Amino acid sequence: MKVNVFSATRKGRSHARNEDALLVNTVGNLLVVACADGISQLKRGKEGADSVVSRFNRIVEDSVAENPKNPNAILEEPCAVLRRRCVDEFIEAKREVAAAIGCKEEEIGSTFIGLIANLKTGQAKLFHAADGCVFASPNVRQNTCWNIISYPDKLAGAIYPAQCEKQYERMRGYDLNLNDYKCLVLGTDGFTDVYIEPQTGTYLAWDLKLNDIDSDKALNQLIERHHINEERVADDITAVVIKIDSDASDGFTASTTVKKPAAVPPSSPAVPAVKAAPHGTQTATASLPAETGTNTKVLTGFLIMLVICSLLLSFRATLQAKTAAELHEKTLYSLREEVSRLSGSDQAILQRVRDLEASETLTEKATTEPPQEEETEMTLNEGTEDTEDTEDITKQVSEPPTETVTETVTETVTDSQTETALSSDDERA
Asked: Who wins on pLDDT, 331 or 108?
């Protein structure tokens, strides 16, 4: 089996620097390929991309060094175990980089696609976190459509960096054999998204014309013509094309190689990075410069902004308190004005309402105490009867019996008249 690897990385016009990272290396009989895309929304996307490809390379080298009699030991591990180790190492690399350059860990993040393959047996493991894509051309006699081995992982537009705990469950791992394919393509989203239909998620197979790629120069020309000029891609573009000839004798060629990155102690300000020339052989050579003066300026500016924000917040709180006090005072004044506007008739109405309420209270009280009312009525009746008796006695004493006296006088007068008449008769006789 013969393997040829071609790669290219280009800075997009929307970025000040190329935030992608590229790794093509051999460790014994193992081929190590990786690409990463620094997340632009984070301040340290470039450092994140450099750290994951460097750490992935170190994982393979450490495994080979620990197992000199079995260099293929890393490929014999279960895919889930190796995937978890990769995530652990990526998170640890993020912490080391943050401590080295003096930034927050949350500012570092990137995507990741990595492949480890045995150049003799073809046994391979593939790992993919976040966006980007892996295409494959099946090893069959006929020219068939390209397949997608691993799709972009975009959950509702969100991207989880390769250096976060979410990747314990979201990073995908695959067991492959290179003999099953004619060609494999690993690319960041700047390269692969032009072949994906965004609405349906399907890829445009007729546009994926990579069978003629036979050098780094040819790959760069394809990117220049199709991605930059025709599709107007503004993002950074990185791609690795792995062509496999399973019928040929064992061999490996790659015009793009990456040497072993230097280890980064936690106290060192240098971080290994992968720098690539746009056309030609690329090697991992440089590291980030010390940023002491820049960090001091950034820190000073941050402190000044913090003081200004504190003053603005204090002024805002004072203004809100003053506004609330003025509003309260205006409300009280309005209430006083409304009370003073009540006319004399309104005052009389209020007094009438109070009187009605008082009468209703008395009525309710009388209703709730009926025995007391009956006793009062009996007392009043007894008093009335006593008064009537007193009045009768007084009337009898003060008024003489006129009828009896009249009758007596009448009878006396009648008797006198009778006696006088009799006397007259006797005299006449």
From this structure: 108
User: What is the pLDDT, as a whole number, of residue 408?
Assistant: 47
Q: Find the largest Cα–Cα distance for the chain.
A: 209
Q: What is the pTM (predicted TM-score) of this model?
A: 0.61
CB 153 within 8 A of CB 164: no
Q: Which residue is associated with the tokens 């308190």?
A: 321
Average pLDDT over residues 21-36: 95
pLDDT value at residue 209: 74
C-alpha 421/C-alpha 87 separation (Å) is: 167
Q: How far apart, in whole angstroms, are the C-alpha atoms of residue 164 and residue 173?
A: 16
- Per-residue pLDDT at 380: 47
For CA atoms 303, 309, 313, 318, give the dihedral sign. positive
- Give dist(CA 343, CA 257) in Å, integer: 99
Contact criterion met (CB below 8 Å) for 106 and 94: no
* Burial class of residue 228 in the structure, from the number of CB atoms within 10 Å of its CB (0-12 exposed, 13-18 middle, 19+ buried): middle
Q: What does the pLDDT read at residue 341?
A: 66
Q: 180 near 244, Cβ under 8 Å? A: no
